[in-house]
């Protein structure tokens, strides 16, 4: 069993409220949380409207499978979220 922790830090330039932040982040939890091998949550910057941090925990039978899933998440997030990715961290357990 292989486990990765993927943490993405976002900047939301021009975002004026927490309500707008929720709209711009566009349901990351709903999009990725339904996958059985992925758990996701907003892990930081919850009270700031101009920044956000999300953590994904990915589990798989091989490191290759887990790395592939991490890459897919990163790519999809960059295409679908109205925010700038400022930092990406991957940690394998």
From TrEMBL:
Pfam families in the record: DUF503 (PF04456)
Entry-linked InterPro entries: DUF503, TT1725-like_sf
Protein name: DUF503 domain-containing protein
Organism: Psychrobacter luti
Taxonomic classification: Bacteria, Pseudomonadati, Pseudomonadota, Gammaproteobacteria, Moraxellales
């Amino acid at each position: 069993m292989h486990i990765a922790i993927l943490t993405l830090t976002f900047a939301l330039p021009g975002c004026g409220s927490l309500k707008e932040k929720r709209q711009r982040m566009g349901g990351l939890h709903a999009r990725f949380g339904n996958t059985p091998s992925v758990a996701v949550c907003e892990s930081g910057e919850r009270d700031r409207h101009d920044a956000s941090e999300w953590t994904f925990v990915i589990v798989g039978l091989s490191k290759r499978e887990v790395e592939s899933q991490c890459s897919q998440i990163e790519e999809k997030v960059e295409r679908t979220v109205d925010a700038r990715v400022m930092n990406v961290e991957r940690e394998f357990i």
